[in-house]
Amino acid sequence: MRVVLGVSGASGAMLALAAARHLRRLGAELHLVLSPMARRTLELELGPDAAPELIGLAHRLHDPQDLGAQIASGSFAVAGMIVAPCSMRSLAAIAHGLDDNLLTRAAGVQLKERRPLILLAREAPLTLAHLRNMTAATECGAIILPPVPAFYLCPATLAEAADQIAARAVDLLRLAPAQATPWTPPKGQDHGP
Ligand SMILES: Cc1cc2nc3c(=O)[nH]c(=O)nc-3n(C[C@H](O)[C@H](O)[C@H](O)COP(=O)(O)O)c2cc1C
Question: Where, by residue number, does dimethylallyl phosphate bind (predicted)?
Answer without folding.
Answer: 152, 168
